[in-house]
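Late entry, written up from scratch paper. The run itself happened at the end of the previous shift, but nothing got recorded in the book at the time, so transcribing now.
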Amino acid sequence: MELGVTLRKLKEKFGDWLFDVGQAFGDDFFVAHKDKVVEISRFLRDDPDLRYNFLIDITAVDYPQRRPRFEVVYHFFSLPFKQRVRMKVPVEENHAEVPTLISLWEGANWFEREVWDMFGIRFSGHPDLRRILLYESFEGHPLRKDYPVNKRQPLVGPKIS
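Output as recorded:
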């Protein structure tokens, strides 16, 4: 497979920090070390040959049988070049944390809060990491594969003054 401009430039600049590069489902992807998330994302956004100026989404995947257990997945789009790229970041269960991207994309705020809420993966440096879809007293993170689906949750009722 011949690498496109995005993956070539990433390999040149961050080769030691990339675990894999390739194509899947018609888009480039790469697997990166979590310590370089902000630096790589800034490079994708600011490099004049790439200009991935739109953060489409941040999500996660739980692979309970693998180590590391989680992958945080970032989807970027270059509006000028009409290209997509996917960055996957492996995250250990016992230290499920990656740096926030809020300094680069303000919209990362809600995506990161959703990943925290559903998977329990923290984003270091996030200014307001709290639940966004579930209520504060909800116990657990329901998109983890080991979440007990029959778990009873604390009841939520109106606040009594």
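The radius of gyration is 17 Å.
(Scratch paper discarded after transcription.)
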